[in-house]
Fold these 3 entries.
Entry 1:
Amino acid sequence: LHLARQFVMTSNHVHLTWQFDIEKVSETDSYAMELLLFASLMACKDIPERVLRLLVFSDAPAHLYSRCVTTLTSYTLVDVSESNEGYSFGIHPLVHSTLLERIMCEPQELRDKLVKMCECLFQ
């Protein structure tokens, strides 16, 4: 029982740390936050970079995407890995869960934009 309680407390501390980091990103880099929220709608792992780049940053300068990735990896909110098919994103399951909850609290305008980006995947 003691170990189970300790695990829950540790998990809560980790969860709170990630919430704090997500809030910092939200306050300092709206583009990185948008990228993170959109990625969270897709999956927890193996999110193709090319899809994120195409849907979130199609009209933006290349350096903006790089800056956002640097921001997100510096907070360890995402990890980037390389495979034969290119780069892909991964989001820790607890971060992913937190982001999905957060989306419901975002302004309607941003939620609508995220939905439109998802619709583009199926056209």
Note: The helical segments are 2-28, 30-42, 49-57, 62-74, 93-103, 108-121.
Entry 2:
Amino acid sequence: MKSHGNKASLKLKAACSTLATKVNSTHKARKQQRVRKCVLDLLQLYDPEKVHTVDKLMSEWRNREMQLLQHLHQQYHLTDVGLTYFKSKYSRLFELPSIYKGTFCRQCVRRSNGEQRLYHRLYKKRVTVYSIEQIKYSIAILRKLNHEHILKLYDVFESRTRLVLITDLFDYSKCSLPISLLNKSKQRGFTLNESIIANIFHQMLCIVDYLHSKHYVHCNLNHDSFIIENWNQNQLPSAQENKDDDDEEHEEQLECKQEPEPFVKLIRVDQCYSVPEIAAKKDSFNLANQRYAAPEILHFNRSKISAKSDSYSLGILLYVMLTGMLPKQIPMIKCSKVESLVDVVDREVIEYEMQLDHNKLAWNSLSFHARDLITKLVHKEPERRLSMQQCFRHPWIVRYQNGYLKYNLLYEGYTDNLKKYQCIQKVRSGIRRLLLIKDCLGLMNDYVLTDEAKSIVNHWARTFEAHSVYQVVVPSHIKQLIVDFS
């Protein structure tokens, strides 16, 4: 009986070992197939001439497949091992607003340490080649920058059809610069003053000064370039939640509750160029908002573009943060001489004169040093603008560092101005989408504008004018424009 039992146990052990060997061999074969697919994707993307050598590479690096992937990623300056391993490294959660054109964003968690990050996914067939090039250029710039106030890029995954970026986590719909200022201005128990705006502006100066130290000029600074990370957390209790509380207890809670300092981050670097790249650039800049751009960038005068071009954009940003609105621009048609291949030709150029005091109540409510800093930053001539180091030494920044600006409150209509500013930005983005729809409809020869579209637009315009809290009147040419594009 013992011998029979020993034989059965030996047969069981042999069967288990055979099964384990088959499982290991199957697992190893699947792993090799995944690695081969990753290697093939990399060669097709970055070195198509070596696609036929994929089997030779796999045989040379047998039992060292992961080292082969690491070698290729170092050779092609990539940060991780491809889309195949993305799901093994990250778990995706709920959707968030995107910041890059054509991307889809989700919150994700790194499985190894539980860190929360932002996942950007781009399908290459759904966007233009230019958009893909701009995102890849942003990736290249972000890899060269290492600053706590600049968006950090952790991983990049790429295949023939998709491009995935892993960055710092943020919700753009809640922490963008105008929305953060608007929410804080409406928050109970919190009052915006020049000291808070100076804190935000000082961090912007540090960011731009770091870019200039790396010999880069941003060229496209605007309100969409920055976010405020920690202001959408730790909100003070609202009035409805504390109806039954005593006034004394409520005041004590407000005093004990300390507001976090605003933490500014730069999230967009797609138009950030070095000085030699600007000198060799042939096409004009793709600007997100021309109201923030310096005149030399608008007219693409490469000889005048320098680090002081960013000073102009920062001056407009400071004006918006202090008043809640953009400065008024008065168009001036001037004649300028342009050199052509044959002769010097006179050409009409539209230049804009900046009027900072078009709203005298908002402008005069600012302190003298704040107005002086804005005026010296938005000069038309780059040579007369302040540099970053001169801004750090300006009396307004010095007074902020010494704690004197916290008593300078902002304009009473600041919140209303920010609401109007947000409304205008939404209208601008809506017109851009309508232009895209118009381009798509232009491909259809049998497209006919229906009367229903006209009635819907007219009803929307009347409702907007009658019930809008912003007191905005929709002009007739804008109505017709929307009708044509609807």
Note: The chain is about 50% helix and 15% strand.
Entry 3:
Amino acid sequence: LTEALRTGPYGRCVYDCDNDVVSNQVVNFQFEGGQTASINTVAFTQEVGTRQTRISGTKGELWCSGEGPVYLYDFLSRKETVHDCAEAPSSRMGDMPHGGADFLLMDAFVNAVQSGDRSLILTGPQDTLQSHLLVFAAEQARLQDRVIIINSDGSYS
């Protein structure tokens, strides 16, 4: 182990090498209808790997930490509702990439194929491609330090 750290890539100082993985990034999106969204990705937090989600709309907001619960605040009634989340199949889901979402995606796909029940697949390839296009454009914007425009045909410049 000592030799691997001394001579291999794991012994290099993260601040003094070619590592260009983002540790903090804010991405802002503006959509055709004028709606906006932002995502703040932070690598180093007290709850490592725990997603903090906040969605604000014109009539209320949703927020959640990790696996939940999800809180809904209605601006008009000024009331908060708490929605418990279904338990993940494994207590180790948080240790998996994307909080276990990759596993659950493949699990739903396999179950849909086995049962012939297409309703088990909640999103299709177009949604998946669109979300990945946004991520690729965000990474290009970060690396090139510029705004990226995504065209209606999916191309971006």
Note: The first strand starts at residue 24 and ends at 30.
